[in-house]
Amino acid sequence: MSNMKTPSDENAQLYAQEFNQMTTLKNNEIKLPLESTEPINKPDDTYIPFNNRDVSHPNSSIGAVIHLVKSSLGTGILAMPYAFKNGGLIFGTIGTLVVGFLVTHCVNILVKSSHEICRRSRTPSLGFSETAKTAFEYGPQSIKQWAPFASVFVDVCVVTTYYFGLSVYVVFIADSIQQLIHHYLKTNWPLTYYMLLLLIPLVLICQVRELKYLVPFSFSANVCLVVTFTITLYYVFVDLPEAGDLQMMGSFSQLPLFFSTVIFAIEGIGVVMPVENNMKHPHHFLGCPGVLNIAMFIITSIFTLIGFCGYLKYEKDTQPAITINLPVNEILAQVAKICVVLAVFFTYALLFYVPYDIAWRKWISPNIPPRYSNLGQVCARTVLVSGSVAIAIMVPGLDLIITLVGALCFSTLGILIPVAVDTIVMWDSPGVFNWRLIKNGFLFAFYLFALSTGTYTVICDTKGRYDCKRVIIFQTTTK
Asked: Does this entry carry the keyword Transmembrane helix (predicted)?
């Protein structure tokens, strides 16, 4: 599930419930102190977390599937053809299916671990960071002291992931506006100018403090996205050419771009816990077929199809966002470009709420006197928005910033943390021949590969593009 999605107003409420969640353990819970020497992981089959949840407006199983699928069909899918350009037609197809399977498995083990931790701690439900913290508290004696750090680490990862995602949005909007302005006004302004021009409207829209006031923006974003996807699919699937100048497998140097882009597009673990915690029948979430497996099968299939056909359509000219490939001289394509700009712009404020809410509640607000709270909010929002624009300016190109977010942020949030939590929770039951530890070791190796190669590629390409700009400027001035 793509990370940098365009969530609806319903998803916004789920985000708020997830990141505002301060789970209170029941009076009858048995929680071991950090210095306890009692046996850990003592089974308690008498407590069933699902039966103790009190959800005022629960989602049905079908509703949960719709939530997961809808939250994934955002801007990440527009980058899939570019992922296939780097991975190749055959390797891209197989690789996307493999990444989809690995992402689904990581979500599965995280939710299973959360259920197990809820049972041991006699807690109805836990959020993402609470699951990590409680796993350490009920884990081996030697790691109990790291429980507070685990909670902070997850919060930092969530804030970093969504905050860097805002930078992706900035580049995305600026790229589309630059294309339209250049077509009509024949200007040749650099992309940086358009990013700076976005700063004021983004600062203003992010001063909205209540989620309920963002609902109209969310609705407008959904309408614009539907229009964008419809027009884009029309251009992609109409008059598909025969296989021409296509590579079946990308070079080794291109594979980090492929994997990082696919992880960025498909990964969306931040949505999973609030959806599962608000289900009417949470026991339907896992298993076969199960809500998770059905949703991820639909998501992976759609992403693979769009990536395959998009690359088949535009071949070596495929851009980091497929909407950039649409012919700018046609009115229908211009409508799609305008709609995607509006959709991403409106969603920026909603996505901004997630990292800002955590940062404000846990790190900023406690250090500001109450009488300066209002001024502090204005300043904090302005600084954070400006920071996202600054990051977008520093990383030259939509493809590189997508790769950076996928490799550095989403791989940590969606692979490392679930693997670590599952390993701790199942430490005393590693399975026959320690298969759980071996499997998690493989996932950890894949995480290291995605993290190191993706980040290294971004650093090298960024340096190369800046050096190229310096050469062009030097040649121009000497002439």
From this structure: yes
Whether omega before 289 lies within 30 degrees of 0, making that bond cis, reads yes
Cβ neighbors of 419 (< 8 A, separation 6 or more) are 106, 109, 440, 443, 444, 447
Q: If pLDDT is split at 50, 70 and 90, which confidence band does 233 have?
A: very high
Residue 373 carries which side chain, given as an amino acid letter? S
Residue 308 tokens read as 């395959």
Round to whole Å and give the CA distance between 304 and 81: 9
Residue 50 is encoded by which pair of tokens? Answer: 């699902």
Rounded to whole angstroms, the Cα distance separating 328 from 325 reads 8
How does DSSP assign 21-46, residue by residue? ------TT-----TT--SPSS---TT
DSSP string, 267-291: --HHHHHHHHHTBSSGGGSSSSS-H
* pTM listed for this prediction: 0.84
3 state SS of 59: strand
394-442 pLDDT, tens per residue?
Answer: 887 888 889 999 999 999 999 999 999 999 998 888 878 889 999 999 9
Mind giving me the DSSP string for 128-169? Answer: HHHHHHHHHHTS-GGGGGGHHHHHHHHHHHHHHHHHHHHHHH
**Maximum Cα–Cα distance across the chain:** 82
- CATH class, range 9-20+57-478: mainly alpha
For the chain, which residues make up each domain, given as ranges?
9-20+57-478
